[in-house]
Amino acid sequence: MIAHGQYAGLKAVVFAPTITFPFVRLPVELRQMVYERLFCRNCTPKRRERVGPNATRPEPRHMSLLMTSKPIYTEAIPFLYNGHNFFFHNMSQFNRFVQELGTAARFLTSALVTKSGSKLTEHCYTLLNQLESLQRITLTLPAVPTERLSAHIDKQWEHAKLFLLSAGVDEKESMRRLDLITFRVGPTQRNVLGSDGKAIKVITTEMNELCKKHLRKKISRHFQAGTEAIRL
C-alpha cells in the first residue's frame, strides 16, 4: 500500500528478479541497439543552465554500463563517442582528454575547441593522428597576436603539417584530413583581421573555404616537390 504522494492508498506490485538478465547472451545486433539507445546516438549535449534547488535532475546517461565488464566496455565505447559532439573550453583540455582516452580516442568523431594557444597547437595537431574516426573538428584561432586571417592560417600550417602530412599520408588523404578542419574565432576575439584591416567577428563558411584553398596549394606544392625529388 502506498502511504504518501499522489498515489496514496493504492497498492503497488514490486517485481524482484531472482536471476541476472543474460545481457551478454543477446545477439550482438540487439546489444548494439541497446548501446545506441542508452548513449543517445547523434545527439549533441547542450550547455547546462542554472536551475533552482527543487529542479528535477536529468535522467542518468547509464554510464555505469561501461563499468560492467571489459568486454562490454570494449563493445559499447564506440557508441558513446560516435554519437556526440564534444565541446572543450580550451585546447589544453582537449589535448589532455585525448591523451587520457588512450586507444579509445580512435572512436571520437566530432569536437569543438573554443580557445587555443600557439604553444598548444603543435601537440593538438599531433594528437589528431590518433582520431581514426574523426569526421569534423572546429579549432579556434589563438587570441594573440593581432594579424590578418591569412597570417594566422600560415602559422596554423606550421603545426597542421604534423597531421596533414604525417608519415604514410598521401596527397588524397592529406586533402581529406584538411576537409575535417574548420577554423573559428571566439565571441570576444578581435585579433583576427580581414583584408580591410577590421576585426573578423565570425569566420564564415566562405572564409573557411578560402583558408582551405590556401592550405590545399601548400599541400599540392609539398607533394609536387616530393615527386620531382624522386624523378631526380
TrEMBL record:
<protein>
    <recommendedName>
        <fullName>DUF7730 domain-containing protein</fullName>
    </recommendedName>
</protein>
<dbReference type="InterPro" id="IPR056632">
    <property type="entry name" value="DUF7730"/>
</dbReference>
<feature type="domain" description="DUF7730">
    <location>
        <begin position="42"/>
        <end position="96"/>
    </location>
</feature>
<dbReference type="InterPro" id="IPR038883">
    <property type="entry name" value="AN11006-like"/>
</dbReference>
<dbReference type="Pfam" id="PF24864">
    <property type="entry name" value="DUF7730"/>
</dbReference>
